[in-house]
Amino acid sequence: MGSSREYESEKTMIKPVGMSIAGLDTGNGAGGETDLRVFEVLGIHGVFAITAITAQSTKGIKDITVVNPEFLKKQIETLLEDFKVEAVKIGMIYTKEQFQVVNELLNDYFLVADPVLYAKDGTPLIRDIEEYKKIILPKVKVITPNIIEASAISGVKIEKESDVVIVCKKLRDSYNIPYVIIKGGHSKGDYSFDYMCNDEGLYKIGYKRLQAKDTHGTGSVFATALTAEYIKIRDLKLAFRKARDFVQTSIEYGLNIGKGIGPVNVSVEIMKKSMKYEAVEEMRRFADFAENNDRFWILIPEVQSNLAHSIKPEYVRDLNDIATFRGRIIRRWDKKVIVGHPVVFGNPTHTARMLLSLILKGKDSTCLMNIRYDDKIVESFKRIGYETIEINRELEPAHGEGKTMQWIIEYVSSEYGGIPNVIYDKGTKGKEAMIRFWTKNMEEMIEALDNLLKML
Ligand SMILES: Nc1ncnc2c1ncn2[C@@H]1O[C@H](COP(=O)(O)OP(=O)(O)O)[C@@H](O)[C@H]1O
Ligand SMILES: Cc1ncc(COP(=O)(O)OP(=O)(O)O)c(N)n1
């Protein structure tokens, strides 16, 4: 046996470093600690120099303790002498003495300023605004105000798109800022437009305005994501698009925690990726079960089977969150069952569509398989303890291809109130009779089919 030294890696692991200079939000929704989480999920090692501690929750800010400028200086110096900081995001920074520290220490750095004049509850987060304009703004490469902040800093009220152009120009000219990004979260309309202006002109991105309650931290998260993306790709226009995309997803999955405005969900993308990985592993487990059970062929209809398996239902939005086997589950001439790998997401199979309809209807279901219709199979499901329901495919309206699965779920739900685990039909002209069986999880699916096969 070789010693463990043989396997020691010679490679050193490195990560780019980004810095946040910001206040601490004790509720972990908007301050420097959230910036660290954003840096982390975007592949940056975040470091944090703290300017103030806010006693804050989803209900707002109760109090603020400001860090003295000497200690802010000590923190920044300590970090800069050790790490190669690639870019710095400046969030809440409170006093002119603190601004002077930044002015003194961060001359040669790429600075992104989020001028958080007020928190959502109206609490001022930058006290000496006039000094901020004089000391901080001329140093920054990018500024990311919302329309209220942009109006307050420029003195020009933003009411329409042409005002954005005027304010952009004014901010760029007055403070010599190369990139001004004005965020449209506080404007009205079906789309939330953000504008970036630079030497080349105005560039606008619009995303559907989400009717979301839990939006605490949108601005902080946007500016930090922009900083992180800039560090990675060094292209601010592309970083703008990526940061905007990141914020949209974070708002879409905002966290309904606390009694007030919950934080946006910055880790949702990596969580969904890891859930998808788990789903693939479970599909493999199912494939082993199906291929190694010598009676599994009994369950396979003429049109063959498939298994649809989703990530946690609350994270499911569309077919991209549902896995199936690309080559279906096939019964060979010699009764051998072959599972057609690979597992793929976003495959518009009947099983995936039906599972999606079930989930969108509010069912806590993650697995669904289509099974050959046979009286004995339906009876066995009943004996195991599952409720069954028969539907008549003759009743299906002529709604074109691709709508049948949704119709079955809508029909069962409206006619019978609930949606039993076993839904079957005896077929119609050109349509094979079929059983569809759904379960809460993979454990239950495998156990139920195992029991069923022992009865047949
Ligand atoms: N309801 C929403 N739907 C979609 N995007 C939004 C919504 N609210 C804010 N945003 C986006 O979130 C980001 C932060 O914007 P904004 O809320 O204006 O900043 P701040 O948090 O500084 O007030 C912007 O990209 C904006 O377009
Ligand atoms: C400590 C701290 N820093 C910044 C903010 C404001 O951030 P923002 O992203 O604008 O979030 P909302 O307050 O608007 O939700 C903060 N609240 N606390």
TrEMBL record:
One Pfam family here: ThiN
InterPro entries attached to this UniProt entry: Aldolase_II/adducin_N_sf, HMP/HMP-P_kinase_dom, PM/HMP-P_kinase-1, Ribokinase-like, ThiN
Gene Ontology annotations of biological process type: thiamine biosynthetic process
The chain positions of domain Thiamine-phosphate synthase ThiN read 282-449
Superkingdom of this protein's organism: Archaea
Enzyme Commission code(s) on record:
2.5.1.3, 2.7.1.49, 2.7.4.7
Instruction: Name any GO cellular component annotation.
Output: cytosol
Q: What class of enzyme is it?
A: transferase
Q: Is Cell cycle set as a keyword in this record?
A: no
SUPFAM superfamilies referenced in this protein's UniProt entry, alphabetically: AraD/HMP-PK domain-like, Ribokinase-like
Q: In which pathway does it act?
A: Cofactor biosynthesis; thiamine diphosphate biosynthesis; thiamine phosphate from 4-amino-2-methyl-5-diphosphomethylpyrimidine and 4-methyl-5-(2-phosphoethyl)-thiazole: step 1/1; Cofactor biosynthesis; thiamine diphosphate biosynthesis; 4-amino-2-methyl-5-diphosphomethylpyrimidine from 5-amino-1-(5-phospho-D-ribosyl)imidazole
- Annotated GO MF terms: ATP binding; hydroxymethylpyrimidine kinase activity; phosphomethylpyrimidine kinase activity; thiamine-phosphate diphosphorylase activity
Record keywords: ATP-binding, Kinase, Multifunctional enzyme, Nucleotide-binding, Thiamine biosynthesis, Transferase
Q: ATP-binding: is it a keyword of this entry?
A: yes
- What catalytic activity does the UniProt entry give for this protein? 2-[(2R,5Z)-2-carboxy-4-methylthiazol-5(2H)-ylidene]ethyl phosphate + 4-amino-2-methyl-5-(diphosphooxymethyl)pyrimidine + 2 H(+) = thiamine phosphate + CO2 + diphosphate; 4-methyl-5-(2-phosphooxyethyl)-thiazole + 4-amino-2-methyl-5-(diphosphooxymethyl)pyrimidine + H(+) = thiamine phosphate + diphosphate; 4-amino-2-methyl-5-(phosphooxymethyl)pyrimidine + ATP = 4-amino-2-methyl-5-(diphosphooxymethyl)pyrimidine + ADP; 2-(2-carboxy-4-methylthiazol-5-yl)ethyl phosphate + 4-amino-2-methyl-5-(diphosphooxymethyl)pyrimidine + 2 H(+) = thiamine phosphate + CO2 + diphosphate
Q: What PANTHER family does the annotation carry? A: HYDROXYMETHYLPYRIMIDINE_PHOSPHOMETHYLPYRIMIDINE KINASE THI20-RELATED (PTHR20858:SF17), PHOSPHOMETHYLPYRIMIDINE KINASE (PTHR20858)
| Family according to the record | In the C-terminal section; belongs to the ThiN family.
**Designated name of the protein:** Bifunctional thiamine biosynthesis protein ThiDN
UniProt organism field = Saccharolobus solfataricus (strain ATCC 35092 / DSM 1617 / JCM 11322 / P2)
Q: What is the lineage of its organism?
A: Archaea, Thermoproteota, Thermoprotei, Sulfolobales, Sulfolobaceae
